[in-house]
Structures are given as structure tokens and as C-alpha cells.
Amino acid sequence: MKKLSARRRHPLAALVVLLLALAATGGLYAALAPAGTAQADDTAQSLAIDEGKKLYAVGCASCHGTGGQGTTDGPSLVGVGAAAVDFQVGTGRMPAATSQGAQVPKKKVIYTQAEIDQLAAYVASLGAGPNIPTKEQYGTEGADIAEGGELFRTNCAQCHNFTGKGGALTKGKYAPSLEDVSAKHIYEAMQTGPQNMPSFPDTTLSEQNKKDIIAYLNEVNGEDTESYGGLELGGIGPVAEGLFGWIAGLGGLIAVAVWVAARTAKAKKS
After folding, report:
1. What assembly does the database describe for this protein (predicted)?
2. pLDDT, tens digit (0-9, with 9 covering 90-100), for 142-180
3. What is the reported pLDDT for 26?
4. What is the mean pLDDT of the chain?
């Protein structure tokens, strides 16, 4: 009988080798970039929150409270999210002036975008809320302008009128014009509902719906837009414009008729 030269392998050897290989792979993965990147992201976020807290203490705490809990001079910021901060501060509405009218108007922005991002990071840390949208979210690629017009007329035209020119509300309040407003800020306004405006979260108007509305506003307020119906009267809609046409048109015709009749009567007398 031939003598066996190879030693018999232990039955658990394969399992041990497999475990060692897995441990080595896990160790290499933990030591390389992904963990380092995540740690760097966390550090950057923490720094942004710390810097935002300092800015908040100087420019916002007097009205909104030291911890964002709100005061008699300003609402709570807990849960409003980063998007609300980016909109309010990015359009100059916040910090608000000491004396103001029925609502806070748009004015010159006093913070840089980096500072706005830091303020937004701090306020977002107080409670979950809508995030600042990405370019992919508010971009109009693949948007349906006709659908956007339908959605705008259904949900927005009552206040902003049919082409976003703005309009008066009750008690001195108003819906601002949407001309020259950035797509990001329009998206954020729909998401957060600033001041008198209701909010339209994704459960009410989807991300695609918001894109369609932004595309419609870009189309009707673009530089190459023409008023094919003549004098647009501010684009306030067919009912108001039609009423003006009837009153002004009929009034003008009556005035001309009276003038002609008077001239005719004078001519006959002479």
C-alpha cells in the first residue's frame, strides 16, 4: 500500500482562512477614504453649525430667542429647516428691520452665501425641516411648461395673478412679484410657505410639479416674452382685464357719442 505523503488538513482551516480574509478586508476598508471622508464631512458640518450659532447670536437671537424657541417679537425656528433660512436671509427679508409694515419686504442681502449656509446649518440642527434644494431639484430640465401653467393658475394665481406679477391682499399685505426671483428661492417658497403664503410640500406639489411651475414662470417672465394680446394691464387675468376693457371702452364710446351729438347740435343752430 502506498504511503500518504500529505498531511491531513484540519476541518476548520478553511473557515479560519475565510475569517482572516474578511477581517483584513474590513480593516483595509475602515482605514481608507470612505471613513476618512465621512469623518471630514461630520467635522465640516460641526464647524458650520458652530459658526452659524455665532452668527445667530448676533443677528437673530434678539427676536427668535437664544435657542430658536421664539419670542413675542419672532416665531420659533425649531423645525423650519435650512430651506426657510436660505429663503428668508437669502432674499434679505431677514434680519427684519426694526420698523416695518404689514409684512417683511424683500431688501438688500447683508450676509454672504457662506454665512447663510452656516446659519441654515445651525437652524437645521434645532429640528428637522425642509433642506435647501439642489440644482437637480429646482432645475427645469424635463419640465412641462403647459402643466406648470395649469398648476400655477390653480394654486398661485389667486394671489400672485396669472403671470406672477404680484397682487394686493387684505390689511396692507401683498403677494410679491415673482419676476427676477431665482428658481431656488421660488422652490424654497413653495416648500416652506413664507409669511402669508401656504406651504406646498412634496405631498401637495411634487418635485416635478414645482419644476413645471418654475419653468412656466421663466417662460412668461422671460426677456423674449411678448404680450400678444396688446396692453397686458399687469397680467392680472382675463376677468379684471376684460372688465377694464368694457368700462374704458364703453365709456370712451359714450364720451365720443356725446361729443359728436353736441357738435352736431351746435352746427344745426348756427
Report:
1. The cytochrome bc1 complex is composed of a cytochrome b (QcrB), the Rieske iron-sulfur protein (QcrA) and a diheme cytochrome c (QcrC) subunit.
2. 999 999 999 999 999 999 988 898 888 888 899 999 999
3. 63
4. 84
Annotated binding site for heme c: 60, 63-64, 156, 159-160
Element housing 174 (H / E): strand 174-175
At residue 76, φ and ψ (nearest 5 deg) are -65, 145
How far apart (Å, rounded) are the C-alpha atoms in residues 187 and 164?
14
CA distances from 100 to 65, 165, 171, 176, 203 (A): 20, 22, 14, 16, 34
> What dihedral angle (degrees, nearest 10) is formed by the CA atoms of 202, 207, 209, 210?
100
pLDDT digits (tens, 9 = 90+) for 191-233: 999 999 999 999 999 999 999 999 999 998 876 555 544 556 6
Same-domain status, 103 and 48: yes
Q: What is the DSSP letter of 204?
A: T
What is the C-alpha separation between 178 and 160, in angstroms, rounded?
8
Structural domain containing residue 213: 133-223
State whether 101 and 48 are in the same domain. yes
Rounded to an integer, what distance in angstroms lies between the CA atom of residue 31 and that of residue 173?
58
Q: What are phi and psi of 167, to 5 degrees?
A: -170, 160
**What predicted TM-score, i.e. pTM, was given to this entire model?**
0.73
Give yes or no: residues 127 and 138 share one domain: no
In a domain, 148, yes or no: yes
Q: Are residues 139 and 88 in the same domain?
A: no
Binding region: 60, 63-64, 156, 159-160
